[in-house]
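Hey, I was hoping to borrow your eyes for a little while. There's a protein on my desk that I can't quite get my head around. The fold is given in discrete form, as structure tokens running alongside the sequence. I'd be grateful if you could look everything over and explain what you see. Here's the protein in full, and shout if anything looks odd to you:
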Amino acid sequence: MLMVTAAIGPQDKVAAFEAGANDFLPKPFDLAELKARVGSLLAMKESLAKAVDLEVAFLQSQIKPHFLYNVLNSIVASSYTDAERSRRLTTDLADYLRGSFRFSNADHRITFEEEFSLIRTYVEIEKARFKDRLRFEADIAEGMLSVSIPPLLIQPLVENAIRHGIGGRVEGGMVRLSAYEADGEYRFVIEDDGVGMAGVTGNGRPDGQSGQSAVGLDGRQGVGLLNINKRLKYAYGTELLMESEPGRGTKVTVRIPAHVA
């Protein structure tokens, strides 16, 4: 947003930027300068959009080598004792890889049904590794499957809950995904009863604000949460809400305004 005003005091500039302005042009102004400023802001917006698209591509590329190694090991081991399970795992892995790479950079929105299908496939693959240590529940309200969301917005959060939440507990645990509408928002809530995180209480945010720090998280997890938080801010002006307590688990909430979804 370009603020054009006759007020030129320092406090006026501060007020303009606090109101959401990205640039400030005092009156009287030259038409050529106005066009140049507008062109610069449009170029900046386009660059930001491209950066967000690249982050989606980055998330798509994060198929961890050790994840593939573990799945392939499970497939090979099962082939000697349970051919049906081996075939099922092979199919699940193929479906997961196909789903992960299906979303091109042009896919700015997909339905939650598509994302949820990818999530279920991913969970089935991880169950082969965790066995009875991993329990997964989903509570999806009517109508939520048709909601449009950016691709790979929810699945990485489920992955975090499994790997960094219950993965650190010998006895495993529960991961629960809820999706519903409340107070004019579509909400996607990912909860686990795993190891939890220190330094995140109440409605903590993974961006270092309100006393919370992403640096305190596991390195890979912190980067993943920050990427998703950045995408939410860009697309909807919202942020991830986090609640966590060591030894008790973690809850992450994604909020999307219903009127723009």
